[in-house]
Amino acid sequence: MSIYNPIHRTDSGAADVLGKVALELDREIASLEHRARTQEGRLTELTNLATFQREALDAAAIVAVTDRAGRITSVNHKFCELSGYSEAELIGSTHRIVHSGVHDRDFFRHLYRTISGGEIWHDVICNRAKSGKLYWVDTTIVPHHDGSGYTAIRFDVTPQKEAEQRLWRLANIDPLTDLPNRRNFMDLLAAATNRCEPFATAILDLDHFKDVNDSAGHDAGDRLLTCVARALQSAIGADEVIGRLGGDEFALILNFHGDLGRLNDKLATLVGVVGDHTEANAFGWRIQASIGAAVFPEDGSDHRDLLKCADMALYAAKQSGRGCARVFEGRYRREAEWRADIRSAIQRALAEDELFVQYQPIVDLQAARPMAFEALLRWKVRDGSVMTPAVFANVFDDERTAADIGAFVLTEVLSQIDRWNAQGVPFQSIAINATLGDFRSSKFVDRIIQAIDTGRIRGDQLCVEITEGMLLDRGARTVWPSIDRLHDRGVHIAFDDFGTGFASLTHLRQLPIDHVKIDRSFIESICAGGKDRVIVESVIDLAHRLGLRVVAEGVEASEQETLLRGLHCDSIQGFLIAPALSEQHAAAFTRDYPIAA
């Protein structure tokens, strides 16, 4: 209602003016009252919105407020819940209370430099809860405009971070040994070369590990790898690295401060750690390692070249008898290139029929009986010269190539037996040299058995020669069943190069051996007396006592033949009798030689 209510009206004009003024005042007052009510409603809305936002932030985020000195002045419930600390424990403390030790000083130096400059800082931080458990938070720290302190808003990203870590482990960590895998190690090796400081990288290989898997099973092999990994880790420094390249190969990054003598001592220690490790040797056989090493930057300018050089040195260690270490030398690269060329040439020779077989006679000294032969591989190269396996022996280190050659020789010999049977050539048997590569699959033995079972050859027309090296490998346990299968079909088994290795004499008792072949190295000096003659005489006597026949290889003088005959050696072969002969000359030789009655 109007506030103007005059008691007296002086005149009508003045009354009209005053009425209008009163009306305007009424309208202004009404407008002010409406605006006040509207602003009050808006203020209530803003208050409610602020309350909601604060509640939503508290529900979703971890919030803490600190003063300029970094002391916590306020925390929300979620901070307490995630950290495990009570509000009372947190207020007045600094964020060092949840320090995890994961981040370095540079990380926090950058954080403090950013917020002290009035800028917002954002990153992911790993904190440690009161229980000791690590958790990850996506953190934004906002400086207050009045300079009074900082508000930190964090979101828990632990599940995402743990998922990232699991994926990283799958991509970079070997699950069996918990060591860096090949990919991770190559990255670490590349990083080491980028630092441009001298170091060495090494490849360690467990000798005959495949034989452990073959004979004892993959579970035993995995246990062996695990205990060897632990032993090697304990033998290197905290600033050195060990990874697993795959299979039984480990790789290392070693510090030696430019002192090659120190490096050799360290490598020898690693070889000894594997060889002397009691847990590893609990598997029932002696475990040993071979190591090849290369030095940066002398041997390789990048991580790939460096590892190749270490691999070449590893090959040299294995050729030196295994169970030792070698540091890369320039000649290893030249030898590796030559080996690669020879392997490639042999594969080409197989494809282009450059390989062929000749037959060296084996004559019986004690009785008139048909002559036996040993099939010997030859390679006629493009210049017309003929090479013996002694020149390209390293190709047999590659089991696949060795198996290809073995299959070729077997094909030739089976066909030769076919032809000589058809021609009526008087021969006793043909011997072939087998390798581990021949026995890695059953194809080699299956072909022989098929030829016997189909009547193509008689079992006693074939002799398979095995070496002591094959029997020293624990993988020979995988060879034994094959030898048994062959022997059951009447195939003769010969123990070749007897005395040149370290095979246990129990092999002569355990395996179905028919013949023992004495290596030519013992025959060379037999006529001079001494130890070689004693060894030969002892081998002959031992073999005969075990019911085995003896063949002496490399007989080149009649005096050797006479002495061997007096020692009751059963058979001899060598240049005194004949070199390796072609098919036609060998057939003629069987008819013309006096012993072959």
Can you describe this structure in just a few lines?
The radius of gyration is 44 Å and the shape is elongated.
- In helices, the fraction of residues equals 40-55%
Q: Uncertain runs with pLDDT below 50, 5 residues or more?
A: 6-10, 49-53
Percentage of β-strand residues? 15-25%
List the strand order in the largest sheet: 11-12-14-15-16-17-18-19
Describe the 3D structure.
- The chain contains 22 helices and 19 strands.
- Helix 12 packs parallel to helix 13 (399-423).
- By secondary structure, the chain is an alpha/beta fold.
- The chain is elongated.
What's the SSE blueprint?
Elements: H1 12-60, E1 62-67, E2 72-75, H2 77-83, H3 87-90, H4 105-116, E3 121-128, E4 134-143, E5 149-156, H5 158-172, H6 182-194, E6 199-206, H7 209-216, H8 218-235, E7 241-246, E8 249-254, H9 260-276, H10 278-281, E9 289-296, H11 303-319, E10 325-327, H12 330-351, E11 355-364, E12 371-380, E13 386-387, H13 399-423, E14 427-433, H14 436-439, H15 443-453, E15 462-467, H16 468-472, H17 476-488, E16 492-498, H18 506-510, E17 515-518, H19 520-523, H20 530-545, E18 549-552, H21 558-566, E19 571-572, H22 583-592
Parallel strand pairs: 9-10, 12-14, 14-15, 15-16, 16-17, 17-18, 18-19
Antiparallel strand pairs: 1-2, 1-5, 3-4, 4-5, 6-8, 6-9, 7-8, 11-12, 11-19, 12-13
Helix pairs in contact: 7-8, 8-9, 12-13
